[in-house]
Amino acid sequence: MTSSPTTLAPYRICIVNCYPAASRANFDRSDVGHPHDMFKDFLAREAPNATIELVYVADPDFALPEDTTIDDFDAFIWTGSDLTVYHTDDPRVASQISFAKELMEGGAISWGSCWGIQLAALVAGGDVAVNPRGREWGIARDIELTDAGRKGPMHAGKPEKFNGFIMHLDEVTRLPEGTSLLATNEHTPVQAAIIENGDAAFWSTQYHPEYNLYEMGRLIAARGEALVREGFFPDEDAVAAYAAKMMALYADPDSAELREELDVGDDIIDPQIRELELRNWLRFIDSRKA
Prior knowledge:
Blueprint: E1 12-17, H1 21-29, H2 35-46, E2 51-56, E3 75-78, H3 91-105, E4 109-113, H4 115-123, E5 127-130, E6 136-145, H5 147-151, E7 161-168, E8 170-174, E9 181-184, E10 192-197, E11 200-205, H6 213-222, H7 224-229, H8 236-251, H9 256-262, H10 266-269, H11 271-274, H12 276-289
Parallel strand pairs: 1-2, 1-3, 3-4, 4-11
Antiparallel strand pairs: 5-8, 6-7, 6-9, 9-10, 10-11
Helix pairs in contact: 3-4, 6-8
């Protein structure tokens, strides 16, 4: 199933990588894909005329590209992160809170996955804490749209119940006042929200529409020690075997055997379903810029 590009206008989009330098280096050593590359891939397919800039907001020397301000960008995309958003005394976190506030006060359009929903909620007056149910990893099961989600623009065309890629320990425990919950599941009640402040709109999900089976398989393999320690697998060989099956299904998406064994369907495999929230976000940019 294919689609024509969603956004044809020559927009300028800034991808905000939220991982510190040490974590990015560890990604390279562990053969893990960088999330900014996943967003670049999506934009190359869906917004081929957009100009993309990449910044590293957790770095001490973070700045927008020379001679630019937030007003020079049509939208911002925030990646996940392995930092903890309520550790506000950490300068790598404080710089992100400051920049997110600047965008919210400046009326910017943003997208954020995982870390993004936690950061946006905290900045707008909500609360974030460690999830008492533990890590949600690999595939978030039975994410269900709320009434606001079914009627809203983020999930237009999405099944009312679906699965999504995920990897997190913290969760939003209270959304900012006036923010509607759009999607939820048993493990993590806050799975999606649009956090607004005046003209600013921060579309955010706890799950990752930008990931695919190959990239999640690589991430799971790299998280083997933690997944064993937390009791999800008996040993790291079992983690590696599970990750390999995810990557094998990516290579052969029609494998009925692997689909059944991993318990995944088209909502995980088909990018036209999996990435729909991102595609709807591009349409939102179009509507705001028209």
